[in-house]
Records
---
Amino acid sequence: MAESNPASRDAAREVTRLIEIMAMLRDPDKGCPWDIEQNFASIAPYTIEEAHEVADVIERKAWSELPGELGDLLLQVVFHAQMADEAEMFDFADCAAAISDKLVFRHPHVFGDESRDKSAEQQIKDWEAIKAVERANKAERGTLDGVAMGLPALTRALKLQNRAARVGFDWPDAANVLDKITEETAELVEARDKLDHTALEEEFGDLLFVMANLGRHLNLDPELALRRANAKFTRRFQAIEAALAADGRKPEDSDLAEMDRLWDQAKLREKARA
């Protein structure tokens, strides 16, 4: 067992202990039946979920929860590495070595002879040049190659647009994007009454894609903006529920007009506290 005092814990020892625990869980004779039957594909959704839970803790500034959530995310890396080790593909040490080598390669101004005295703009250009070399080594020839399919859709849209912008395929400013949003909105309204579900979905997707592009031009992360909008909606709707509960009622016992009024009250309270 590890020491109870966190200050006395040794990182290398704890990582080794975690790897050993994971190996035991996957042991065909003595391990956990659930862990044994898992594979890369079945674990991948948990990996994505744990990453989002880390982001959620950071967004809520719930710092006391962060070590646990980061531990859950680390478990996903160890789980995948253990399965790979069993298949004689690679192991955890290979994962750690790969990211260490990548960090050193991508930071020649820290680990090499390049000067650190350069602008942020030059740093970005150098970074992209280094990543271009990495993509070439992976035989990724197209501009959009290597943008992961499994990313959240808004995040992937942003990355695709950034890649295209690097080669000049981009609107010059946000005003042009706003014009495109007006155009796509009109097409969606027209499609609502004339097109089938599949065509309507396509028009809606086009509008979302352009909205992501507007966020990029405004230097906003659309995924983060939507997460915060979700959190705001949750807070205000919970305020509606709390106000109704004070009268012994639930939302289904109310109507839209009353809930709108309670929503506006919650909004005013938030602005007063800001």
---
Amino acid sequence: MTDTPRHSLQDLLTLMAVLRDPGQGCPWDLKQDWDSIVPHTLEEAYEVADAIERRAYDELPGELGDLLFQVVYYSQFASEEGRFDFHDVVDTLTAKMIARHPHVFPEGTLLSRRQGIDATQVETAQVNSRWEALKAEERQSRQAVSVLDDIPRALPALSRAAKLTKRASRVGFDWPDARGVLDKIREELDEVEEALVAGDDAHAREEVGDLLFAVVNLARRLKADPEQALRATNAKFERRFRHVETALAQSGRTPDDASLEEMDGYWNDAKRLERYPQDS
């Protein structure tokens, strides 16, 4: 441990206020607004996920800090406009979490935790049921018309599809088992093929969307997060293709110089080495 004084949350809030100060702030920060920061927020969230998936825990403090800075940024905008400030964000979040965990805070306050309530005695199914009931009450208080109303449109398409189908399933709009989803995937794949045979590329693109949506449904039924599943496959593809490039480079060539059959052979080598690393 170091004796160097550590910066506090208040230091961070002060820094943000200075960056946005018209007299002494940073020109770039002064130009930002609600909309211009959104892409940075999404990027920072993905960088946190990437560090976790790579188990790069030494990078996480920095990545989590970058994500926290986004919250501070929005809070500064709101404070300047007289809407709310960072402390309102913390208060709202804490109150919501207490309300959603009555099995942990039965008296509706953090102080009740001192009473020694054992949350492990509450069944997980009960917790999940209560959580969803409370979220439904929150949607009703916001006068939401549909059970889908509060699913963010800015979510990645795979994640949003999973949330849409999960929310619909809670009101009974779902297949009874995974077999029904598999049948739907086959149906959508047939429709893609029919559109391609007919030479209707526009319709084929639409059907590919339907196919992806059905596959997301299957991922949900298997309790797999589709974004995480696809990121894992992306990483696997990248590993194997880099192996193909490396193997070709050993003979002074690139993929442009090789046949598909040769590259496919190196690809299969990469698959075999992943399964049987002792053969390397």
